[in-house]
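Good morning C.,

I know you're traveling, so I'll keep this short. The sequence:
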Amino acid sequence: MDTASAAISSTDRELVISRVIDARREFIFKAWTTRLTEWWGPHGMTTPFCEMDLRPGGVFRTVMRAPDGSEYPTKGVFLEIVENERIVFTDAYGPGWEPSPEIFFTAITTFDALPGGKTRYTARALHWTVENREKHEQMGFHQGWGESLDRLVALVAKA
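The tokens, ready to paste straight into the viewer:
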């Protein structure tokens, strides 16, 4: 279905996960934007809440729930949506471009069409500080985002 994930970083404030998926980017983009609650989060986590307004400045909120009931809310806004190509969101702002007091990162997800109906999916987490990048890595970025990607791949495999 897919090739192994690659973890690469081009700066000391960036974390990256990339994978070639055996599915057209239109399917993957649609699953990202309409079925996020079915795959968002590491194995064992659920996402019982998701709010997305897919436009620059539009809200993006989720709540992930661990098996022990602990909840992990996220909130931010979309900066850019290019259908079937790119999704950019950040926690630096809230609705109405209200600055966030606790900025952590901006995520850039790209869907690059490859021959044979495959897609290179790349998720980049750009942090304002090296300390935030290190914290995100220690929180389990590669494993957690990789497991979320596993779940997304499984979902689009059914399409």
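Safe travels,
E.
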